Amino acid sequence: MGTYATLLASFLLFAQPPDVPAPQDQTVKDELQRLQGGWQFESMEQGGKQFAPGVLKDRVFFVGRDIFVLRQGRINEQIGQLKLDLKKSPHTINTIVKEGDHKDEVLLGIYNLDGDTLKLCLDLKGDNRPREFKSDSESVMYAVCKRIKTKKDADDITGTYKAEAIDLDGRSIIAEAQIERVGDAYQVIYSKNGVPAYVGIGIRDGKSFCLSWVTNSQAGATLYQIESKDRMVGHYVQLAGPGILCEETLTRTEE
Q1: Are residues 145 and 28 both part of a single domain?
Q2: 153 pLDDT band (50/70/90 cuts)?
Q3: Dist CA 44 CA 141 (whole Å)
Q4: pLDDT at position 18, please?
Q5: At the N or C end, where does the chain have fewer CB atoms within 10 A?
Q6: Which residue has the higher pLDDT, 135 or 126?
Q7: How many other β-carbons are positioned within 10 Å of the β-carbon of residue 9?
């Protein structure tokens, strides 16, 4: 496994379900949710010089949790961690580079997120944080990115749901399910009486949502059909069970 793949695997394998954030951290958590997924570079300049469109064609800034990956086609050029500060204007961003160009450096920057448009301005030397969205120095990079969207995933499924399931014994199980974006995927945390009980990671394809989940004692998979942005109906199966499909319904309670 290559260096980049090893680093990404370590992020994914050892990442734990996030704790409930303190009130002062909630705005940062919400902002990271808005950043999840891929961002296509629309324009980029450094030292006042524009990059050619051909260079930017396959260049993508990807965010998953607070991890960023800078990609050129299928090649990962940088991997690191993001630190945001929303108390300042403009909002500040630190990119802590773990692998690739500027490895072990912290690049200071500012950003602006407006709907599906992301503006990034970074000092590539990490000496001085830019104050404006322009590349008036050789070390300053300014880029405008557009969110990568797919029509089939148009409806947002993130939010809080009431989960109602029927287990193998015919018992009714009611829990709360919190769905959040993790890059192009989704994390789901099921809680009972406010205590996390199950955690899963899922992928979506149009009206289908497939989820693998685990607890301390069992693991399984669920396949949902998205009936609307507020309701999903699915069936789940336990890894160590007899393979009998059980029913489950998610009904949105809040976005």
Answers
A1: yes
A2: low
A3: 7
A4: 43
A5: N
A6: 135
A7: 11
Please give the Cα distance from 175 to 194 (Å, whole number). Answer: 9
Which domain-ending residue is among 149, 170, 192?
Answer: 149
Q: Is residue 186 part of a domain?
A: yes
CB-based contacts of 16, cutoff 8 Å, min separation 6: none
Distance in angstroms (rounded) separating the CA atoms of residues 255 and 252: 7
H/E element holding 10? helix 3-14
Secondary structure class of 5 (helix, strand, coil): helix
Domain count, the chain: 2
| Predicted TM-score (pTM) above 0.70 | yes
Q: Are residues 196 and 222 in the same domain?
A: yes
CATH code of residue 211: 2.40.128.120
Q: Name, in order, each residue with C-beta under 8 angstroms of 217's C-beta and a sequence gap of 6 or more.
A: none
Structure tokens at 70: 């800078």
Place of tokens 């990568």: 148
Q: What are phi and psi for residue 113, nearest 5 degrees?
A: -115, 115
Give 29's strand partners. Answer: none
- Alpha-carbon gap, residue 158 to 50, rounded angstroms: 37
Domain that holds residue 242: 152-254
234's enclosing H/E stretch is strand 231-238
